[in-house]
Amino acid sequence: MFMDDECDVFFSDFKLDPDVFYFLYIGELKTDCLNQFVKETLTKIHGQPFDFISILPDVLESYPHKNTLVINPMAKELMRARGRKVSFRIAPRTFASLVSASSTVNNLIQQLLDKQGHVFIHVFESVPELTLALIPGVRILGPSGHISNIWNNKLYQLQMLKETAPLINYRVCTDADQMLETAKGLWDEWTDGIFVSQPYSAAGVNSFLATNQEEIEAKAGHLKGKFFISRYIPHQDDPTVLGVVANAKDVFIAAIADQEIQNGNMFRGSTFPSTLAAPLQQELREITRRVGRAMGRSGYRGIFGCDYVVDAQGRIFFVEVNARKQGTTMEMCCTLENALPPETPGLLELEYYAVMQNRFPDNMVEISEALGSLCWRTYNYKLDQEAETCQIVPVDEDERTLFRQVVADAQAHGVIVVEHVGSKLSVQPGTFLGRVVAVGHSRAQLEEDIRQGIQRLKESIFDTIQKTSIPEGDGT
């Protein structure tokens, strides 16, 4: 139910079963789907039925399962002001602070501790602001928030990995004035463009690709703090590699996918398997393993990702580490589940062992190549202007089931739209309207299925807003 003004949560719908142990998920809806794998992992390892309570910031028409808390005081204020629900994104650190300060969440944790003796918290990204981890008996199933924060600093990555990964030529600047002056002297050498970023940047925030000096001055001249600028590498491929760090030696490499990047720095989705040649994929695996070992030496334990670009000559350049789960971690979990023997540990079980025991289980196996003809593609549909939804896009099939059906040849291919916000909501710029997932046996099938999924999302907003809020074409 939606809560009144006296409660510190926006929405609450949960009831505890006395015969079940519970863990908490704290993060956005986009990775809530991973909790089924965590649930199975904890039940298997502890020999006790587990379930989860999701603590989300997302404002939706309705929620996909019970045991959900929504903490979003800004949404309550907007709902009072506008008389309707408003869907928007909250920065991960802000949300972690809100959750940590919530009396409802703290009381829930104490209730679970009294019953269970311990509480696990599953997160998409570990951040220092999630101070619930300091409560005795509470354990984050992921890396340390402080260590993750250090590794998500792009300047730290460049310094620590200069002997480990093939870095792009870059310059570090103490402030905007020095950055503008430095860039001015590099255009004759860096003729294809200059990538501008601050130490903490993600999803197109605090970074951009510039093709002239005037563009840099307009976009960054007013910003404070340090910058680094790097030479833009014209390239054909944007591969991403997902892995798990268990210690300073053992790093599991899950798989490689090709990212879809718009405007130089905005992630929109991924396609698996990668079209890169086998030798290049093997080189990417080994570079990522070396990066993971460097992270392991610093105390990092858990899932991480590395992004790269590959130019027309087949040269690999390191772009960044994401010291967290990736946007396509769910698809990677489904891929491993169908590619590996039944008793082989999956991605979330590997993370559990890495975090809790600094090791991998003995029966860990990496996939050496893509699974037969299995292909998948995802597309994240974000709005660039405010829009109003007129209908919900229902989930026709569970994503995990879709993967199993395609692998078993029970269906040739399929597409689903997940995490749609629902009907009669105002959706703010930068917010996910929904996510499209297509699974099949060929890339040609995925192309058409993704197009159909995007069309469903377009039809869920009013015509008068569709033309200005949604990019034309299929979003590629």
Give an account of the 3D structure:
The protein has 476 residues and is α+β, with helices and mostly antiparallel strands. It folds into three domains: 11-141, Rossmann fold (3-Layer(aba) Sandwich); 169-231, Dna Ligase, domain 1, CATH 3.30.1490; 239-469, ATP-grasp fold, B domain (D-amino Acid Aminotransferase, Chain A, domain 1). The protein is 32% helix and 25% strand. It is built from 14 helices and 21 strands. The chain has helices spanning 35-46, 73-82, 92-101, 103-116, 145-151, 154-160, 176-184, 213-220, 278-297, 329-339, 347-357, 399-407, 443-458, 463-469, and strands at 11-13, 21-26, 50-56, 68-70, 86-87, 119-123, 138-140, 170-173, 194-202, 205-210, 227-231, 239-245, 251-262, 266-272, 302-310, 316-322, 375-382, 387-388, 414-418, 426-427, 432-440. α1 (35-46) packs across α11 (347-357), α7 (176-184) packs antiparallel against α8 (213-220) and α10 packs parallel to α12 (399-407). It starts with 10 loop residues before the first strand and ends in a 7-residue tail after the last helix. Mean pLDDT is 92; it is low at 464-476.
